[in-house]
Amino acid sequence: MEEQKPIEKIKIPNIKNIIVVASGKGGVGKSTVAAGLATSLAMEGYSTGLLDADIYGPSIPVLFNLHDIKPPVITKEGKDVIVPFNRYGISLMSIGFFVDPGKAVLWRGPMASGALKQLLTETYWGELDYLIIDTPPGTGDIHITLLQSYETQGVIIVTTPQDLALSDVRKAVNMYHNNQIGTPILGVIENMAWFTPSRHQEEKYYIFGKGGGERLAIEFGVPLLGQIPVNENMCQICDAGKLNEMFNDPSVKRSFEKVTESVVSKLITSE
């Protein structure tokens, strides 16, 4: 039997930590969690970037109110590079800045993977402590290209509590455990863990089920990094591109602070 060659990955210069945010299931709020984590890291004083690698359904232009504008291109060291937008201290890049938001992106896998490589390597990120990469739902070409080609510090899995979400998320976890991927799972974030009215912080309503993220973490032997609640203002805040206002809710702010502390601590320990 032919011996498998070790995976050789490219390290992106000047980026200390690359964290992939993923889920095998759409609709779990993965992009909101990725954006929230990036915002929380920036609020803690870390130089942070956020790459929207969801080629077919980019969310960053909406979440950060960056509609119908394209980032500038400059020449750096004889090479044309894209300058990311900056919001709330986060360097932002998305395929959504370059495509018509009203039209479907009809790209096969190789073209989508090529676009990802361009966004990752031809963006002028500068010096970053953390680059958060928001990936598409599922376990397709984008994930395989990213994880087999580039050096990342780990993957965060996002799920909601209900069993319907967990069944698909398990497939993503199994993919990251594959030896040919070679990327550690940092842990699980349970999004929409409960509903807490913004004016009644002591109340919790488990409208999507209870404890699914914890069960998933125990099943695969990985940490539960945190549970993110939802309130009645979240939808409007995200649609209006005012993501920073999400942190006006104390329970949401505390939850993201806990996730940030867990992620930073885990990466420092693994160095």
Concise synopsis of the structure shown:
The protein is α/β, with parallel strands linked by helices and 271 residues long.
Description:
An eight-stranded mixed beta sheet has the order 5-6-2-7-1-8-9-10, sandwiched between helices. The model has no long low-confidence stretch (mean pLDDT 89). It is built from eight helices and ten strands. The longest helix has 21 residues. The chain is an alpha/beta fold and 271 residues long. The radius of gyration is 18 Å and the shape is globular.
List keywords for this structure.
single chain, 271 residues, alpha/beta, eight-stranded mixed β-sheet, 22% strand
Strand arrangement in the largest pleated sheet: 5-6-2-7-1-8-9-10
Rg, nearest Å? 18 Å
Derived from helix and strand composition plus strand pairing, the structural class reads alpha/beta
The number of helical segments is: 8
Overall strand count: 10
SSE run? EHEHEEEEHEHEHEHEHH
Fraction in beta strands: 15-25%
Choose one word for the global shape: globular
Give the mean pLDDT.
Answer: 89
Please give the alpha-carbon distance between the first and last residues: 35 Å
* Contiguous uncertain segments of 5+ residues: none
Helix content: 25-40%
Biggest sheet statistics: 8 strands, mixed
